[in-house]
Specification:
globular
Length: 141
């Protein structure tokens, strides 16, 4: 038995030396979740600029959510590649490459992050009319 273990240890040592010593870490092929998140943010900012809106904080929040949900929910390489290279007009098609569960998790994460953003960006308490009965429009309709 001892002789078998010694032989196996020697064989493993020789194989490791022949292959460069230490195990190689697999490098992901194609775009990464980070590339998808960065492109999504860039497209949001560009779309905002075309429409005269500052989307920087919303884009940063969206980047954070994609960087979190993409690896956590195991997005497919196809969905990641789509998001990493899509123009703003193509983003909706990319969302169809996610499963219903992945889309739901993404939506829930965005909603949760939006609640902590600036007034008017999703917090129900901040967008509710004043409770003192005052007209929030100041008489203008």
């Amino acid at each position: 038995m001892k002789q078998i273990l010694t032989s196996l240890t020697f064989a493993c040592t020789m194989m490791a030396a022949a292959c460069g010593g230490s195990p190689k870490v697999a490098t992901p092929k194609g775009p990464t979740c980070a590339a998808a998140a960065d492109n999504l943010a860039a497209q949001m900012i560009a779309t905002g600029e075309k429409n005269g809106m500052d989307m920087a904080s919303f884009a940063a929040m969206s980047r954070d959510v994609v960087n979190e949900r993409c690896p956590a929910d195991g997005w497919s390489a196809d969905a990641i590649a789509c998001l990493a290279t899509a123009t703003s007009d193509q983003m909706e098609a990319c969302s169809k490459k996610l499963t219903p569960e992945q889309n739901q998790a993404l939506e829930e994460a965005v909603k949760a992050k939006m609640e902590g953003m600036t007034p008017g960006m999703g917090s129900p308490a901040e967008s509710a009319p004043p409770s003192d009965g005052a007209d929030p429009c100041g008489g203008a309709e």
